[in-house]
Amino acid sequence: MAGHKFHWNDWCPGCGNFGILSAEQQAITELGITKNTVIVGGIGCSGKLSQYTRIPVSGVHTLHGRAIPFAVGIKLANPSLEVIVNGGDGDLLGIGAGHFVSVGRRNVDIVVILHNNGVYGLTKGQAAPTLFRGMKTKSLPRPNINDAINPVTLALASGYTFVARAYAYDVPHLKEIIKQAIKHKGLAFVDILQPCPTYNDINTKEWYDKRVYKMQDMDPVVKSESEMQEKLKKAIDKSYEWGERIPIGIFYKNELVPTYEERIKTSAPSYYDNYPAEQKIEYEKKLT
Ligand code: SF4
Known about the structure:
By secondary structure, the protein is of the alpha/beta class. The protein has a single domain (17-282), classed as Rossmann fold. It has twelve helices and ten strands. It has helices at 17-31, 49-52, 67-77, 89-95, 97-102, 151-158, 171-183, 205-211, 228-239, 260-267, 269-273, 277-287, and strands at 37-41, 58-61, 82-88, 111-116, 119-120, 126-127, 162-167, 188-193, 212-214, 246-253. The protein has an eight-stranded mixed sheet, with helices on both faces. Helix 7 links the parallel strand 7 and strand 8 (188-193). The radius of gyration is 19 Å and the shape is globular. It starts with 16 loop residues before the first helix and ends with a helix. It binds iron/sulfur cluster.
């Protein structure tokens, strides 16, 4: 339409979501999987990422809290696709918490990316599940009376086989973490510290810049069944570090647990046999 101006993005200036969008696009492009990728968004500022990508991936903007089941359905319909969920802490850990936990039991080979900002930004900054008790952001009339969910601990306890944390303003590091999550065989989770400058005036860029550090002391990769418990316990212990120092990087990576798709192939081969040959070939390549 003549004279129409297309506003491709309505995130606030300085929002951490821009760093996530940039890193995710770079990761997908560098891995050469653009045509094969589906980004699934829930409801919230984060959910719009599926529409704001400027690379030719497929995108689905779904219902509040339901991005994970949509993503699982897409993956099971075509296991050769790379499926990435983008959601906020309100979307994934509030209304969507049941899906967040139960997908861990299945180890479906998808990536779940959390835009962790502690507030419901789209609806004017109410307290969201990762905001600590006692915190009073500028959008709250009184301090938050609810305790916070620790997303890394919850993902580890739920059975995610790749668990990492990154920071929205360290785009090169975030990009590498997202690439690792996509390449991982199994269910991957990335908790991204994402400042919301409009409604969260406590966990700001300045606040995180002083605290965030890259983990050097972790050996997160599980190499044998016998070290699974020990590595998981170490990762859970590390996930509680928060305050003056906040670790980012990979907490846990375990490719010894069979994926849901592998379980289907073993226990219901007739279902797997129904996949088109091309999809099977692509998926088998990933398994080897
Ligand atoms: Fe970003 Fe917060 Fe604005 Fe939403 S409200 S776009 S999270 S800065």
